[in-house]
Design brief:
The complex is a heterodimer of chains A (455) and B (90). Chain A has helices at residues 12-23, 53-57, 61-75, 137-147, 162-174, 187-192, 194-197, 201-216, 267-271, 311-329, 336-359, 364-368, 384-392, 398-405, 418-429; strands at residues 5-8, 29-31, 79-81, 84-90, 95-100, 104-109, 112-115, 119-121, 134-136, 149-150, 155-160, 180-183, 221-222, 226-231, 238-242, 248-252, 255-260, 262-264, 276-279, 284-287, 300-302, 375-377, 382-383. Chain A has 455 residues and is an alpha/beta fold. In chain A, strand 19 (276-279) and strand 20 (284-287) form a beta hairpin. With 90 residues, chain B is mainly β. Chain B has a 5-stranded mixed sheet with strand order 3-2-8-6-7, with helices on one face. Chain B is globular. The chains are: A alpha/beta (455), B mainly beta (90). Chains A and B meet through strand 9, helix 4 and strand 10 of A and strand 1, helix 1, strand 5 and strand 7 of B. Strand 10 of chain A pairs antiparallel with strand 1 of chain B, so a sheet runs across the interface.
């Protein structure tokens, strides 16, 4: 096969995809935006850090070691390009625009493309969320894991889901005792979907273990709570919140991390021409693909969290699966038994994911009733009130509202504010969130030096 | 405030931020170096709503852009601090 195969992303799904391609005798181009691969959940610290895998990744230590071993072994067997950003795709000509090391531009033709672009935290803007000291949960975790720092000595961690508990326990163990772990989901919602969670017993037990670990360490935890505002002047001083009985509390703290599940980083899939569908379970727009990861755009494959949130286990499986689909499509031999086993595991994981998302739902209501004065779009400093005014000025969908209000037009391209902005707009229009659509991706997907834009 | 907790036994380096020397450690990102040195923020919002100090720590939110002399704009969360580096906050 002389076709040019490109894999974008060096996280768990990218590693497993490249592994399959290389063992089939291909030499793909493998592009990673960071200096090293490994993804986020199994991110490696820079050189000079000494903690071992057990200390860094806990229960994921074995997985991390295996992934890193495969990653390092593959680098010399493909065209490995770290520090390289894919900032645009011209799908008709099948060309990627690359920016290497923050300076050098080039173009790269592909016949087949596997996008393994990962995910980021999904958040809900609230008063004070732009203050220094406020991060995403993923950010708080990266800080501890890859830099050995805590976002604060007494942080509040808020949101819902396994990442909330995991990050909180990691902080407590590291010596940054959380002032509070605020969970927006009530106990009953979690218990109601326990049956579905039995589909992946080890992961479910790990989740319960995290929760028990926090209780045993005496970490203050509240459920069914509602954040009102992060308070402080130039730095975080406290979090104001309501408990389930609607009583108001103020918790002193020096940092806040927030996250309500993850959202796919699917901007490149968008530019590649892949359509999106609203997924009721994930409460988000997800790329269209078949169970093997084939997009309805010839030559494009999708895997990992960028193709719909599934977690690290699914990322590895779907990376392998997408590569096998690519090989089969190019009439190369694939192991049918392996394919069947992967498909069965992925189907079972999809059931588990559905129960997980239902157990820890995105608090759409919280976004919908965001106070008018809240900075909704932090890049452009646009308030929720300004977006509501755009809605009143007859913006029936989110891209029109963006043109009216500039929400989502800043440096992050709506990665951060997109989902909550859609909730605010939908509420203002009195429609379901899927009726307002999703922010369309635009090149460059991340800022590039202006002199680098070709004339 | 950002607190150094684990794995901090690394070589000390000095870099310049807005013309003032700060001490950091080899392997720190610029974001870690600046916040752990107590600078409080890494850029100022161009809309007058105060300082910003990153948000996602993974190159997605674009909230931590700083100017590095001879390199131009860099994301502080994904750029390693180097001895003698000159950083300007915007």
């Amino acid at each position: 096969m002389s076709a040019s195969v490109v894999v974008v992303g060096g996280g768990p799904s990218g590693i497993r995809a490249v592994e399959q391609l290389v063992s089939a005798g291909l030499r793909p181009v493998w592009i990673e935006e960071s200096a090293d691969g490994g993804g986020r959940i199994t991110q490696r610290p820079p050189a000079g850090f000494k903690r071992d895998a057990r200390a860094l990744y806990g229960a994921d230590a074995g997985r991390a070691r295996r992934l890193h071993g495969t990653l390092d072994a593959l680098k010399s067997r493909c065209d490995w390009r770290p520090d390289t950003l894919v900032w645009n795709i011209r799908p008709r000509e099948r060309v990627l625009h690359l920016l290497q090391g923050g300076g050098q531009q080039s173009e790269l033709r592909y016949d087949a493309l596997i996008l393994c672009t990962g995910a980021m935290d999904r958040v809900v803007p609230m008063p004070g969320w732009t203050l220094p000291g406020v991060t995403t949960l993923g950010g708080a975790q990266v800080a501890l894991k890859s830099q050995g720092v805590a976002i604060g000595a007494k942080p509040v961690l808020m949101g819902t889901g396994p990442l909330l508990w995991l990050t909180a326990l990691q902080y407590a163990k590291a010596g940054a005792m959380p002032a509070l772990v605020l969970d927006t989901t009530d106990t009953l919602t979690k218990l109601r979907h326990l049956g579905g969670l039995l589909g992946n017993l080890p992961t479910m037990l790990r989740g319960i273990g995290l929760n028990l670990g926090l209780r045993l360490r005496g970490v203050p935890m509240v459920e069914d709570a509602t954040p009102i505002a992060i308070e402080g002047d130039g730095a975080v001083r406290s979090l104001r919140w309501r408990d389930g009985a609607w009583r108001e509390h103020v918790t002193p703290c020096d940092a806040v991390a927030m996250g309500w599940g993850l959202k796919p980083e699917a901007q490149l899939a968008d530019l590649a021409g892949v359509p999106f569908d609203f997924d009721a379970t994930q409460h988000n727009w997800i790329v269209r693909r078949d169970a093997a990861g084939r997009a309805p755009v010839a030559g494009v494959y999708l895997a990992g969290d960028g193709a719909g949130i599934g977690g690290v286990e699914v990322a590895e499986l779907s990376g392998t699966r997408a590569a096998l689909a690519l090989l089969a499509d190019h009439a190369l031999p694939v192991d049918a038994v392996m394919v069947r086993a992967l498909d069965m595991k992925l189907a079972a994981e999809a059931q588990f994911r559905q129960a997980l998302e239902q157990s820890f739902p995105y608090p759409a209501k919280l976004a919908r009733r965001m106070p008018d004065a809240t900075l909704l779009c932090r890049c452009e400093a646009i308030t929720a009130g300004e977006l509501r005014a755009a809605a009143a000025a007859e913006a029936p969908e989110i891209n029109r509202a963006k043109a009216f209000s500039r929400v989502g037009m800043g440096r992050c391209q709506g990665r951060v504010c997109g989902p909550p902005a859609a909730e605010v707009l939908a509420a203002a229009l009195g429609v379901e969130v899927q009726a307002v659509g999703r922010l369309r991706g635009q090149p460059p997907v991340k800022p590039i030096p202006v002199q680098q834009v070709p004339a | 405030m950002l607190t150094r907790l684990l794995d901090q036994d690394r070589v000390a380096i000095v870099l310049q931020v807005d013309g003032v020397g700060i001490e950091a450690k080899q392997g720190d990102t610029l974001l870690t170096a600046m916040l752990a040195a107590g600078l409080g923020y890494v850029r100022t919002s161009e809309f007058g709503d105060g300082g910003r100090a990153g948000f996602c720590w993974m190159g997605a939110c674009q909230e931590c852009w700083v100017v590095v002399t001879e390199q131009g704009l860099r994301r502080a969360c994904s750029t390693l601090a180097e001895a003698g580096m000159e950083v300007v906050r915007r």
